[in-house]
Amino acid sequence: MRWKWRCACPRPDSVHRWGSCFFSSEQGLLLTRSAVFCVYALGAALGTLRRQRLPVNRETLREPFSIQAFIACPFVVALALAQAAAASPAQAGPFTAPAIGALAVAWYLWARMRAFVALNGGSALRALGSVMVSFLLTTIGVVGLFAAVIL
User: Fold this and answer.
1) What is the DSSP letter of 94?
2) Backbone dihedral angles phi then psi of residue 49, each to the nearest 5 degrees
3) How far is CA 142 from CA 14, 18, 107, in A?
4) Which of 22, 30, 41, 88 could crosslink 68 through cysteines, CB 3.0-4.6 Å?
5) Model's pTM, two decimal places?
6) What are phi and psi of 150, to 5 degrees?
7) What are phi and psi of 55, to 5 degrees?
């Protein structure tokens, strides 16, 4: 039996059709999260190849992408925990979700900074600056893309 994913759109002719497809079901949310975090890992891997002046192909992209994807996994889990805490603030407390989210972002930036230094060399401060700029630009791009698709 083939598994077929269907959009759970309340109104197919709606302007918000794609938003419903991305966020209204567990399958859509899982696929959206997977795609978004692959974009973060891919952007970091492409930046590594650019700094090392290597061509972008399957062989050269495999190692830096795998490293960045492994770094993203705990970040995704921590953000899922933050989302779960935000869904029940009475049980978790009002500051639990923001604290978990902030710690997740801080850890992710630290881990990317350490990977940047290991892959490219240089100082930790320069690496942190590069990672933060990359993270912010990727975040702005992802949010902008979803805003354009949803709105």
Assistant:
1) T
2) -65, -35
3) 22, 15, 20
4) 41
5) 0.73
6) -80, -40
7) -70, 150
Per-residue pLDDT of the chain (151 residues; tens, 9 = 90+): 555 555 555 544 444 566 666 666 667 777 777 788 888 888 889 888 998 999 999 999 999 999 988 988 888 888 888 888 888 888 888 899 999 999 999 999 999 999 999 988 889 999 999 999 988 988 898 888 877 777 6
Q: How far apart are the C-alpha atoms of 97 and 89, rounded to whole Å?
A: 8
Cα separation, 41 vs 50, in Å, equals 14
107: Cβ contacts below 8 Å, ≥ 6 apart: 74, 75, 78
CA distances to 71, 72, 102, 140 from 99, in Å = 20, 18, 5, 22
Q: How far apart are CA 135 and CA 72, in angstroms?
A: 12
- CB half-sphere exposure, 61, CA atoms < 13 A: 10
Give 62's DSSP letter. Answer: H
